[in-house]
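ingest -> validate -> predict -> emit
validate: passed (alphabet ok, no gaps, 306 aa)
predict: started
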Amino acid sequence: MPIDSKFIISANITESKADDKTYHEHKEFMSASALKRLKISPAHYREEEKIEETDAMRFGSAYHCYVLEPDKFDDEFFVFDDSVICEILLGEGYKSPRSTNKYKEWAEVEMQKMGVRTNISKQELATIQAMSARLHSHPYAKTLLKDGRNEVGYMGTIMTETGEIPIKFKPDHLNDKKRIVVDLKTCIDASIDGFSRHAADLDYHIQAALYADLMEVISGDDRQWDFYFIAQEKKAPYAFNIFEASPQFLGQGRHEYETLLTLWKYCNDNDRWDGYQVWCESRFGIYNLQLPPWCMKEIKFYKHKI
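emit:
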């Protein structure tokens, strides 16, 4: 059923032709990731987040590109494979081939070949290929990712109850005919319990509700968009699960993104970026410290005579 919320009144959003780097540099636009940071506090959102790419992030980017944009993979990623040179140097009697000048000279040439591309290892590529093969062996997973548009960025403004807000979003996969948004996630545990906890911890409900609602508004015909997660483990047997965002999941996400966008509008209009106190009912910012339920235990002792 269509969204009941009238928080988003209208939208002036178009497809962005900007490349990934330029798209991410537009920090003046709100996004799902920005809302998740705002949820900690406005002060955390306002403080420029210095994100250093981790191995997990690099692997996730390579996985997304290989599955969703395979034609771009060789332009974006470079496979650094030193197995052959190491085998040659070992055959020549070197016990530590990577510490030799011959290896360093070879590696320097490879780095020049790599250029600005992101480096991944031969083993990482093999893992990504195995994950993709596993994913596409499932008929419905394959269908979900078929006949749609991948990595389409949108930028513009939405008119809300609280005024105009700049916003951007970039779904992994859109299928306009089926009216679905699909998001690929790599994870450690794709089981129902494991991914449910993971999704809650990382506020995936905010992303799901925001993307689905924005696509409904952009489409302009009040027909619902559904949101699916495909969560796949990064270790053999590369098991995965397909999850459809439930009404409860979307409802909580909608409540949170509406509240957070309203908070952002207030902070931006008044140039006030408070810390945790913004969530405190007391005007003095004083919380009532209580023990969590899990530690409320009865203590007993017994005077045994031994």
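The CA atoms of residues 85 and 103 lie 7 Å apart.
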